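Sample entry (288 residues):
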Amino acid sequence: MHKQGIWAMTTILLRRLVKQPKVYLILGLIGCVMDNDLGNARHLYASYQVSVNGFGCFACVTSYEYLLMWLALGFSVLISDVPFLTPMEPFIRMRLSGRASMAARALYLLILSIVYALVIWIMTLLIAGGTLKDPYTWDKALNTMSLGQSVGDAFIYVPRIVVSQMTPLLAWAKALISLITVLYALGMMILFLSTVGTRKLVICLLGLMTVLDEAIGYMQLNDVLYYISPFSWCRPEYQLTAAQYTTRPGAFYCSATPCILIIISLFLLLYVSAQPKWISRSLNRMEE
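Predicted structure, serialized as C-alpha cells:
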C-alpha cells in the first residue's frame, strides 16, 4: 500500500510540474544561452560537413562555468516550490504517513534530476549538431578547439585536460553522473532545510549555491569556497585539475561529498517527517 501510495504521489508531483509554464520557459531560455556558445559547432557542419562528438560536447558544456551556472539556475527554478505541497495534501495525509510522503518527494527529486540532466544532453546534441558515431575518439574540431584555436569562424570552450585524459564516452558518463548526483544532493538538502527553516531563507541559499561556482572564478574569490560550491564538484575539468591546487578540494571530495549529503539529508528527512509538528506545519502552510 505504501509503495503504491509513494509512486502515486510522485506521479502527482511530476504531472503538476509538466503542466507548469515555467518548465518550458526555462528550457527555452537555456536553449538560447547554449545556442550562443554551441551554435558555432552546428555551423561547422553546414559549412564544412564536420560534426562534433555529441558525448564530448556535453562534457565541455558542464566544464564551462558560465553555461553550468545557467543549468543550475534552471534546476533551481524547477525546485523553488519546495517542499512541494499540493492542494491534495490533506487527502494525502489521510492515506500516507509523513515518512511515506517524504519518500515520495525524495523519489520525485531523483527522477527530476535524472530527466533534467538527460534533457540538457539532448539539447546539447541538437544545438551543437553533435554525432554519436564514434564515442571513443575526439573529433578534429573539438581537438583543435581544445588547443585554443578556432575552426573556421567557430570556437567553443573545450578543456584540453579533458580531451587528453578521457575518451568522449567516459567524459560524458562522468559529467552526466556527476551532474545528476550534485542536482539530487542539492535538491535533497534544500528539501530538508525547507522542512525546518523558513522558505525565503532556503530560496536565498539555493540561489547562492547556483551562482557560487561562477562567482569564485569571475570575482577571483578565495579557493576555499570551492569546498561549499556544489556545482564546482561536477565539472570534469575541475575534477581533473583539482590535484594541482593545495587550497582546493580534491577529486575524491568532489565525488564523495554529494553522496554523503544525499544520505544525511534522506535520514534527516525521514526523521523530521515522522514528527507530528512537521505534519501540522505542512498543513498550516497549505492554508496560508
